[in-house]
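WARN  no MSA supplied for this record, continuing single-sequence
INFO  ligand: glutamic acid
INFO  echoing inputs
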Amino acid sequence: MTFEDIKEGLKKISKLMNLNEKEINILLKFKRIAKKELEINGKTYDAWRIVHNDSIGPGKGGIRFHPAVSEDEVKSLSFWMTVKTSLVGLPFGGAKGGVKINPKELNKEEIEKVSRAYIKTFNEFIGEDKDIPAPDVYTNSQIMGWMLDEFEKIKGRHEPGTITGKPVELGGSILREKATSEGGRIILNLFLERMNKKPRETRVVIQGFGNAGMNIAKMLHDEGYNIIGVSDSKGGIINKSGLDIEKMIKIKKEKDSVIYYPDIGKIYNKELLELETDVLVLAALENQITEKNADRVKAKYILEIANGPITSGGDDILCKKGIIVIPDILANAGGVVTSYCEWVNNITGGIFSKEVMEGILKEKMTTAFRRTYELYEEQKTKTFTMRNAAYIIAIKRILGAEKARGSI
Ligand code: GLU
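INFO  complex generated
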């Protein structure tokens, strides 16, 4: 989604909230946009680290390695981090980073070089009380480990709270890898309870089979949901009577795509979005449902695990059709909540046990869901969405911090 699209969405919210010019402008302002070129083996790659807003606390957000990364995309992603961390009540602002590169074309040594070069270039902008990176699309705990190592070498001191999603050996949390999916599972269960629907009666289609998509598929399958379709960037697989997710994961790990799952209906990614299902989980990239295809979507409910998978125009059409969207800033906040627990442990020398962290994740997700759903229900008009409710709650907290600082 382009930042222009976000601006459009924000116009609607500001009408609902009666925001004035100054308040709108402060939400559209970026604290810092750092763009540099990374030089690796004679080639250069564009790279960014952007802080959108840090009125509540240090910038927080992942770094993605992807060939489609652009400044506009990183701006949008950092904006969503500001609203997400605010919605779930974390002491953070919003930030994001990215490198325009295709990691699938690189070997391990080259990826390590890119990771270290990123920190060599951007180290002055990050820190445990300044801006705290984490993994995102096509980055993982090993990459965070190299990045922290490079950062600490440059600074000549330990500062593990500078980066979350690290390997457990460097102060990472054992819960982090599955945290986004676990948060999504909690939210979906809470939502379906309100709809009086049991997992066993619920068909689920999942777009995206990376870390988040694969883990949520496993969790929902274990709870008795009927997963009837999954896809990745190469294509999709469907079986109306349910897929064997254990087998699917094995195939994905061995052959790098779900499409090698034997003797079942193959389907294009586009068609998968249009299947008849109770729940559609979007766990791939941005801009999957737009004005062009929203009309053909037949799911009853959509859970946004990816960031920004539905454009503002797509959202309007889904709303008119009565499809309820559980928005990304709520549904995928489990990752950053667990990053927060990791950060607290890093700066305090480890006060949270695994059980306490699990409790915090559950509590933060449940409270954010309850507040969002109750506001949604209260205001229920045909055009008021759960996304509107989530944004209103988040924006109130951000503007509260800005006012307390005297910036507005
Ligand atoms: N990249 C994740 C997100 O989009 C997590 C960010 C973090 O843990 O800081 O929410």
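Residues 60-62, 134, 136, 164-165, 307, 332, 335-336, 339 surround glutamic acid (CB under 6 Å).
INFO  checksum written, moving to next record
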